[in-house]
Structure formats: C-alpha cells, structure tokens
Design a protein that fits this description.
The protein has about 110 residues and is mainly β. About 0% of the residues lie in helices and about 40% in strands. The two termini are about 25 Å apart.
Amino acid sequence: MSLPNETFYPVGSLDQFMKQVGRVIDLNGVEIAVFQTSDGNVFAIKNESPHPKGGPLAEGMVSGHYLYDPLHDWKIDLETGNVQAPDHGQVQVYPVKIEDGQVWVATSEFLTV
C-alpha cells in the first residue's frame, strides 16, 4: 500500500539481507530493521519495540512472518506491525519493494540520503 508523499530509498542489494536475520538501516536518523523471511519476503519495521520499556527489534528471532521481540518476547506480525495477543501494541511498518535485486524502503517522513 502506498501513501501520498511516500518516497522509496535504496537500502542495499537483496543478498545483503540474510534470511531470518535483522539488519538495521538508517534513513536520516530513523533506525529501521529490515528482515528477509525464509520464504524470501522482505519486511521493514521501525527498530523500536512497542513495549513500554522499549528496546531494539533487529536482534529478534524471525519465524514465518513473525518477529519475537528480543527483550520482551512479544510476537509481532512483520506485515502489519501488530503485536499478537495477549500483549498489545503496534510497530511502524514501512513498504518494501525489490527491483533488479535492489531492496527499496519507503517512508513518508522527510529524508535526505
């Protein structure tokens, strides 16, 4: 889904994103965790846990299209950013596209890269 004012930025080649391992990218001070799942899909979320105590998400474990928060073990849907019950919350997700082996992440935030 694309939003008005959304701009895609190149963040690396697909082979730079290991399957089931998060990689942090920085788009003008915004830390984004990018994950390639075992089925080859790529997802991008803000690298910030929605847990009240916060923490990074890039080091979490990926299973299917879910991420397990490394500090709080919350299960987060990588497609929607929704935290799964019994916990609740949501992580900012960013649209991703892959063109010619290049991974692009979109944001509507003002960025200069």
